[in-house]
Amino acid sequence: MRRAIVALLSSMLFAVLFAGVAHAAPETEPLRYLPVQDAGRVKPFESLARETLQLIYGKQTYKTPTGESRPALEIVMTWMLVPQYWDNQKIVEVAHKGLKDSLKLPAEIKYFSPAELLANDRLGLVLQELNGERQKREKLTPYYQAVQRLENQLGTYQAFKLGQAMRVVPPAPGTEPTQGPNGRVGEPEKWTTVSDLRDDMQAKFATVIRSFIQALPANDATQAPKEHDPTIPSLAQAVEDFKTAARAQNPALYPQEKDIRLEVHLKLFHPFMWSWILYLVGVVLIAVSWQTGGSKPYVAGWVATIIAF
Q: Which residues pair with 70 in a beta bridge?
């Protein structure tokens, strides 16, 4: 009994820890710590990339046609660099059967390319129906929630392609937050998007892009291999130079490096995953103590449970 429980626990831990793990190449990791503004708050690019890929692809890592898993930051960044490639890749998750029926999509297929969805002659009609439902100001049905998600998926992808989804430079000092009704403060002034960068900031971000391409591992999307160009700085240096210039635009609005690194650490560490693993360990150890009558597994089980809490 005890051996069976331990074996089950081991197999579950192995599945959680090693299934579908994808890590950014060490050369591209500095891009994780680039501050961006999204949905009214400032966050590291790592968070934005994960959330974006989760929305569009349904997962926080992407599996290439060759079966290789790649992290979100590499995938989302290359949407701006090689959009002609990604337009034809099956990266948009459509899971709702009713929506597939409305768009006359194959029911057995889960992922579709942006190009084929945007070219679908029934997409406009489906989105028009969604707008009609919104005007009723009632809770959307699961079907229309799926339509709304598809609208967000395609809109977000297009915004990244055009460099309009990455807001990387804070507004100049003295810019006040917008005022809402009754004098309430609304959203803060939006940061400048990549597509709207000018002069020195545009040049520095172009250097970030060149350094990123230089650091990017060879894969289908980047058309590598590529020769090393000694005139291009490392990605770490390019990102640091850009952050220094962006911070100088408005030091009061630019986040502290420690805060950005802490959020990235939490994204990579997965504290809630480890918490439920420790709960599971605690339950198994206490169960073992009941079977054997030993006090050590019982104490260790409660220690694991307390740490998890």
A: 62
Residue 178 · residue 186 · CB < 8 Å: yes
Distance between CA 90 and CA 266 in Å, rounded?
A: 29
Give tens-digit pLDDT for 191-211: 999 999 999 999 999 999 999
Instruction: Kindly indicate the confidence band of residue 222, based on its pLDDT and cuts at 50, 70 and 90.
Output: very low
- Residues 219 and 239: their CA atoms lie apart, in Å, by 23
Contact between residue 275 and residue 248 where contact means Cβ atoms under 8 Å apart: no
- Average pLDDT over the chain, rounded to an integer: 85
Tell me the pLDDT band of 185, cut-offs 50, 70 and 90.
low
Cα–Cα distance, 24 to 30 (Å, whole number): 10
What is the predicted pLDDT for the residue at 62? 95
- Cα angle 222, 223, 229 (rounded to 5 degrees) comes to 80
Buried/exposed 80-99: b ≥16 CB within 10 Å, e otherwise: beebeebbebebbbbebeeb
Please, what is the end-to-end C-alpha distance for the chain in angstroms? 27
pTM of the model: 0.78
Three-state SS for 174? coil
> What is the sign of the dihedral through the CA atoms of 100, 104, 105 and 108?
positive
Report how far apart, in Å, the C-alpha atoms of 17 and of each of 67, 281, 289 are. Answer: 19, 14, 26
* 61 Cα distance to chain centroid: 8
Q: Residue 287: what pLDDT?
A: 86
- What is Dmax (Cα atoms) for the chain? 73
